[in-house]
Fold this protein.
Amino acid sequence: MSSTPKPTSSENIVAQKALADLIVKSGVGFSAGVIASVILFRRRAWPVALGTGFGAGMAYADCDRSFNPARIPGTRIIPYSEVKKEGSS
């Protein structure tokens, strides 16, 4: 048996960060929903579900941006042909 660890790929690292982000943001949304439910909405269940959903949605959007940087607002993908033209001038 070898004791050398296998190298982890960058996709695994990003996926682990995305999962951790999902747990944290869903937990924060859940907590905010519980507090809002107790203080403002007379112990209804929908603020908890709404807060958890908002947290999970934010985590999904961050994960999507991590795996696909073209989804970041304000970025522009320049085709290789344009880069090649500018470099030869």
